[in-house]
Write a structure and sequence with these properties.
Length: about 270
């Protein structure tokens, strides 16, 4: 489910990048302002992410769609290590598979210089600015996720807030770094485009930014403040993260350690 959802997101990114940036596209010809076109791409991607979070598969998997998010929840003790391995692997496989499929089906369009497989590379401001942009965007995204998903009255709106923030990041951050915020998303485009400009920063910056956000949140609110690793905590399907916590609670009780039982709703 994580692989399929991120794969669908990659296809969406390519589709709207082509629709708005391919020179022969009627939409590109109708919208002359590049900032407006970038805003349209941001809205499309943001709406897609929101839809995936609230989709049946997003509810079931927890709607991470990003290795950096999974690794942050792993660091916070909310994801079993073995689950994290498969989540991260699924993210890369889903994203790369979707890009190969898209490049095979629409090679002439997505390979054009104006689209170039929607690769994320540092902008004219340089690598340093790209590192700062990716780190800040990742920090803000993870902070938003933790604040909203762990506040009962706001938790149900987490998906909407994520979509809005991602759309804003694409509008404001894309000129600096391409607004990836996702290592799997960058690798998928880079593989088919054979473009690896400063690829390391798209691993280091998002992961560091989100881990930093997790550490700040935990330091401020305590180790028990994070209820669950799902981005949509109020649903009726089985949550593998809560199941993990249930096992941890039993193990801690058996050894005499303090444990916390996490229910289906966090």
């Amino acid at each position: 489910m994580e692989a399929a959802c991120l794969g669908f997101l990659m296809m969406t990114i390519c589709f709207f990048s082509a629709l708005l940036e391919y020179p022969l596209s009627p939409v590109h010809r109708a919208i002359h302002d590049s900032t407006v076109r970038r805003a349209c791409i941001g809205v499309a991607v943001g709406l897609t992410i929101t839809s995936l979070v609230y989709s049946p598969w997003g509810k079931r998997s927890g709607a991470h769609f990003n290795p950096a998010i999974t690794l942050t929840f792993l660091r916070l003790g909310k994801v079993a290590p073995w689950d994290a391995v498969f989540y991260v692997a699924a993210h890369f496989l889903g994203a790369v598979g979707a890009m190969f499929l898209t490049s095979y089906a629409f090679s002439e369009i997505v390979s054009s210089p104006s689209v170039h497989y929607a690769v994320t590379v540092p902008g004219s401001a340089g690598i340093s600015a790209a590192v700062v942009a990716e780190t800040v965007m990742a920090f803000l995204l993870m902070t938003l996720i933790l604040q909203m998903s762990n506040t009962p009255r706001l938790a149900r709106y987490t998906g909407l807030a994520i979509g809005l923030l991602v759309a804003t990041c694409i509008l404001l951050g894309a000129p600096f770094s391409g607004a990836s915020i996702n290592p799997a998303r960058t690798v998928a485009s880079a593989i088919v485009a054979h473009t690896w400009s400063a690829w390391w920063l798209y691993f280091a910056a998002p992961i560091f930014g989100m881990l930093a956000a997790g550490q700040v949140y935990q330091s401020r609110y305590g180790s028990k403040a994070v209820r669950c690793a799902t981005l949509h905590p109020h649903h009726s399907v089985r949550c593998i993260f809560c199941a993990f916590h249930s096992r941890q609670h039993v193990e801690d009780s058996t050894t005499g350690s303090e444990g916390t039982f996490v229910t289906q709703d966090g």
